[in-house]
Amino acid sequence: MNDAQPLQRQLETAADKLDLAAGIRLRGYVQQVGDGVAQVVGLGDVGYEELLRFDSGALGMAYDLAETSTGVILLSGTELVRQGEGVRGEHRLPDIPVGKSALGRIIDPLGNALDEGPRLSSHSSRPLFQPAPEIVDRRSVDQSLWTGVMAIDAAISIGRGQRELIIGDRNVGKTSLAIDIVAAQKPGDVACVYVIVGQPMSRVISLRTTLEKAGCLGNTAIITADASSTPGMQYLAPYAGASLAESFRESGQHALVVYDDLTKHADAYREIALLLGRPPGREAFPGDIFYIHAELLERACAVCEQKGGGSVTALPLIETTDGDISSYIPTNLISITDGQIYLDSVRFERNQRPAIDVGRSVSRIGSVAQSPGMRKAAKNLKILLSRCESLESLSRMGLEMDLGMQHTLERGRQLRELLRQGRLQPRDQLEQIIALTAIMKDWLTDVPLKDTKRFIEQLSAMVRSEREGLADTISSEKSSEHDWMPMASAVADRIRPSYRKDNGQ
């Protein structure tokens, strides 16, 4: 009798787990399959964007609901799907595990680990497709996202909750610039999500190595659908990044998400749409490609205090051909985003890196997100660079310049030299403000151009040592130029003669 009780308990447990409804659950079968999509019939109750499971174990997503069939985007196991095999609905939408456990990891758009780490916990997950926050739930963008890149922080300031496009030709440093911005974010202050679409896996590993060397891998989640992934996974990757970033915003934190890049995302969506038989439009893209990207990027914003006060900042990357920003996808994204950082191939070839064309770049937030100290120091930066380039063009034509024009040209060249910045070498706000002030106040008079950077580094170090805590107060509302500028000017006068001597003067 005692032996029968454990057996009875086992039978009761098995009976509780038995799902009799599965035997009568509606199933379909594959009518046609190929090139990453399948046509399935017999699933009349399937929902839009619902996950489907094939008998072979492959995973798909219902995306084209026709009267007699269902167009399915294949996500995994595409080589296993055969014509005639069964398929059933999973009754759930695509989702991704969220939380701090994703930081420092490489995962695919469905949250599967692609590195040597353990599987992510699915206790806390978030659907990939989410509506953007309502207008009443948003707040104005007024907090600066510090990038450590002087050309951006001074001339094209980015705010937390902004959508700033990084645009340029192939191999001009778009990814490098995005990595530099990610590396400048402090752990615990801004969580980073880096989305890679359609790149070789070797580049994903290289990105991870770079972030690890920079000491910011633990603050960054890498979501990738590499070049060997299906078009469906490449299509889902940016949405997975947006959902993961939104999970930090919902907890009252700030997040930065990089989409590298949306050109390949648009190509993947075009491939899916054409394979599913949707009518092509301009450049063979489907008519809703603008809506697809607008829906994605609208999810990046800053929310009000009642919703936690967090933010998601988006940096989409887009590739142009021969500097043509008037093609279809670039013009779409320029009109969607809050500004663009334009990288110029000519500047890149001249070793002016990052190769940012300050004149063609813009932030529609303006100086609102800048600190008062930076706003004062950088107010004439664009004008000076523009005048310098104009004078250089005239000098190449043989025009004789007076002393005033020569002085402007010299200051512009010094500024351009200071805007040149090495990889993974972020500059703090104190150094940037002192560098800009030194240009505008002529503290660099008679300093050789090649010594400009060294002079500013020494000046910043001495100012920092003479006035403890200046780095924290120089950008505050209460800080005044009279609090530090006379002291900095005196230090500059004190060290300038040594540079003249080095130049043989």
TrEMBL record:
Assigned EC number: 7.1.2.2
Cell compartment(s), UniProt: Cell membrane; Membrane
Gene3D superfamilies (alphabetical): 2.40.30.20, ATP synthase alpha/beta chain, C-terminal domain (1.20.150.20), P-loop containing nucleotide triphosphate hydrolases (3.40.50.300)
Domain ATP synthase alpha subunit C-terminal: 370-482
Topology relative to the membrane: Peripheral membrane protein
GO molecular function: ADP binding; ATP binding; proton-transporting ATP synthase activity, rotational mechanism
Name recorded for this polypeptide: ATP synthase subunit alpha
